[in-house]
Amino acid sequence: MSASSPSAPRGQDLPPATNWRRPQINQGWLARLLDSKTFLIIACLTPALGLLMVFLTYPLGLGIWLAFTDTHIGRGGVFVGFENFESLWYDWVFWGAVFYTVFYTTVATVLKFGLGLWLALLLNENVPFKSLLRAIILLPWIVPTVLSAIAFWWMFDAQFSIISYILVDVLGWRDTYIDFLGTPWHARWSLVFANVWRGIPFVAISLLAGLQTISPSLYEAALLDGASSWQRFTRITAPLLMPILAVVLTFSVLFTFTDFQLVYAITRGGPINSTHLMATLAFQRGIPGGQLGEGAAIAVSMIPFLILATLFSYFALARRKWQQGEAND
Amino acid sequence: MHDLTRRGALGLGAGALAAGMAVPGRARAAIPMGNATPPAHAVEKGATLRVLRPTKFVDADETVFRENTAKFTAQTGVQVRVDFAGWEDLRPQTAVAANTGAGPDVVVAWADDPHIYADKVLDLTELAGYLGQKYGGWLALPQRFGKKWGTEQWVALPMGGSGGPCVYRISWLKEAGYDSLPTDHENFLKACQALKKNGHPAGFALGNAVGDGNAYCNWLLWSHGGMVVDESGKVAINSPQTLNALKYAKELYQTFIPGTLSWGDINNNRAYAAGEIGLTQNGVSMYFSLKNDPKTAAIAEDTGMARMPFAPGGKMAENVLLLNAMVFKHTRFPNAAKEYLRFMMEAEQYDTWLTGCGGYWSHPLAAYAESQVWKGDPKLAVYRDTNTVEFWSGYKGPISQASGSVAADYVVVQMFAAASSGQSTPEEAVREAERRARRYYR
């Protein structure tokens, strides 16, 4: 109620309205504290920062520090500068792992995206039993990695492979069993295949979600304009799918690059190191081999690659026009 | 034969455990004992112990170990908690205990670990001396791994070793023209060639297989007189002996079933049980799993076990996985811990364990050669001498972190795999192995 309230009769001897004060409630210290912006900022951020420090910054920092020491399991180390990296530089086992990691990531990602996009497009059509099909598609992703790895390990077995059995004993197309994991390139492709099988659902379902956000009216308009289905795909679907594609691509690259379980469970990096990923080599040298410093150095060598992948996503997402389906200028 | 097998099964399976427990005198009577006074270790009042050891591979390993521990608690009042760690987790867990000075008092570790933590473990010389005197002396490999390098000081108490002799099909070897397995390399190769010709190839793991890969490749190296490092720890793998071993391995590889480059620890067991291979190398566990399954019992019947061809001088050259117990200095109850180890190694407990495991962990003390376990089934006799081997991982240098790292990086295995498969010439393979070994021995 303000002093200039029209209902107040003029001329009456009222105390000046400006003297009116809202009755002061004596606030407790807690209430005052909770009203303080500074305090709130600190209180709300501390747990998050704490978690980040304890579970992310500290382990990462420790890992980087270890990479510059000669720490062994069971014995502390001293700072040795770039000695671990120098020694890795001349180690072809390490370079083999770098090569295979890049190969594995590139080939598997391309295949996962090609097949995943294709699957997503199919599932986006009106197919019978749509929900059931979508649930089935997710299966490879739901099965724990180690379980699927063991299943593949049997399928790729030198003596008991079902694939070889069918080709040799049932169909008679071959005379000998395929040595899936015993020759370098067979083993490399076998692992890529296993990874693609596991990774497709993630890509397909994410892209399907992206496809469903595209308004059908756009397609209708395009149809009226007489656009072919290829034109509709390149002019509507592809640009509108780009933002989500960029995110999914980044995640997929990161997951593939840091893969460990499939390779460790199926080949342990063999035959003769031809399928070592940087992650499996880092583990082998660091934990069973006891050379924590060297293992950490291998793991740290993965960071530049991961940063590249993250930057790609950052810049891809920052391009707003692209997101809105317009051409970049 | 049939009778013998049945009796063997009774004497070796879980039945042995029951028999051992029911008539405790019988199993013990066989072990000859010398005169020795146990070291005077007065168990601390209110002592409790934590023990860490690798997980069981055969059931009795855990059950008998726990029963023996319970007996110790009943007799001394010391509460003991035994934790079983996965084989690959044991080493990191030991490292944490050693570094933090907390956790288990006693660790039954892998062979090298007590040497890596030699300054953090209690001296066990007195105890080892007593056990050696009472039970006919320590065998060669336990001496190597019990004593600190180059000294007479015992830092660990080896408890048992798992070896990998040659395992083959008797009838197929006979068909190939051999009544028994040849003990020299040349005829061994010929036997394998004959087996292969008859469609029963050999199969040895050449993949990154912790147990079987190292077993096969170390045998190749040692039995040809090769070594990774010399006595002083200098890399000495690039030698004519190693080259001979590589050339031999290449020829032997021609007699293998395809795919051994990808073999892990389990593949040879599967292929052997399926009758795909006629000859391999393995611990005693495979024989028992074949024997205890009615479907494969016939294969067990037809299975023979013998030494792999010997090293120069007729020395056995097989790789052994050794259990090596140590007591950390950080324990609050050193006497109780030493008493516990003594108790577990005394015949009454040890022989029950040895017998219960069917000889899986072969004994480190000479007197246990008389144990019932080696008499029930004559085929097992070859495992009896497991611990008499004079070669060790990292032969012929000190047991150290470097020897462990070279093994974990599969340097020797991959050298043989590369040369066998023809991916490198023997000369290239050995140079590469030399380079890789030097990265650790520096």
Automatic annotation (TrEMBL), chain B:
<keyword id="KW-0732">Signal</keyword>
<comment type="similarity">
    <text>Belongs to the bacterial solute-binding protein 1 family.</text>
</comment>
<protein>
    <submittedName>
        <fullName>ABC transporter substrate-binding protein</fullName>
    </submittedName>
</protein>
<dbReference type="Pfam" id="PF13416">
    <property type="entry name" value="SBP_bac_8"/>
</dbReference>
<dbReference type="InterPro" id="IPR006059">
    <property type="entry name" value="SBP"/>
</dbReference>
<keyword id="KW-0813">Transport</keyword>
<dbReference type="InterPro" id="IPR050490">
    <property type="entry name" value="Bact_solute-bd_prot1"/>
</dbReference>
<dbReference type="InterPro" id="IPR006311">
    <property type="entry name" value="TAT_signal"/>
</dbReference>
<dbReference type="GO" id="GO:0042597">
    <property type="term" value="C:periplasmic space"/>
</dbReference>
